[in-house]
Amino acid sequence: MERNKSHFYDNLDETYYKVWELLNSGLKNRNASFHIPTFISGSNNEFDGRIVVLRGINEKEKKIWFHSDIRSNKVKIIKSNPKSVLLFYDKVEKIQMRVSGISKINYQNEKTKISWDKIAHMSRQCYLGSQAPGTKVSEPTSGLTTDFDNLKYTIEESEAGYKNFCVVDFFINSIEWLYLASKGHRRAYFAFEKKQIKKEWLIP
User: Fold this and answer.
1) What CA–CA distance (Å, rounded) separates 47 from 176?
2) Read out DSSP for 79-132?
3) CA–CA dist 72, 132 (Å, integer)
4) Residue 21 DSSP code
5) What CA–CA distance (Å, rounded) separates 106 from 83?
6) pLDDT tens string 79-101
7) Residue 187 and residue 202 in contact, taking contact as beta carbons nearer than 8 Å
8) How far apart (Å, rounded) are the C-alpha atoms in residues 185 and 187?
9) Neighbours of 193 (CB within 10 A)
10) Which residue has the higher pLDDT, 29 or 194?
11) What gap in Å lies between CA 88 and CA 11, rounded to an integer?
């Protein structure tokens, strides 16, 4: 049973600080729950969600980013409707965050080049398939040739994957926070408008 209140329990400023603490932890620690949020996007009456890997955050610019294949369905959806949501949940902290914002595709520009150069040799494998993610096939396959599938390629050969690589910038408009506690849940809302931060409590 929870006996002591968390320092952010009844404090909006401390809750806001905790938001960025968790995002920073998710960025730096691959085992943290916030390292792999769910990205949700949609167009017309079709919506889609998938796990992405947190690759960067910028508190000052209120921005989060992750990597993707330019041929993926989520990129197509973003191009038709950039409004999207990132959903985070930490079962140990008992904290859920729904982050709403606007997504922007970076492709073959300075940002993608910097990000691509930091990607490990084995991780570049994700972008070396000859067909787009989600393509229908008659048999189970990784989509890679035998050499690529077994990491039998040089760093120079992996450069071929750059043409399929992109970085998705997610510009935060608002954050809805939910903290589950036996002594009483807490729900808060943060909105970013013209460099101002609106903070308010909500009924859980």
Assistant:
1) 20
2) HH--EEEEEEEETTTTEEEEEEEEEEEE-SSHHHHHHHHHS-TGGGGGG--SS-
3) 6
4) H
5) 16
6) 999 999 999 999 999 999 999 99
7) yes
8) 7
9) 9
10) 29
11) 21
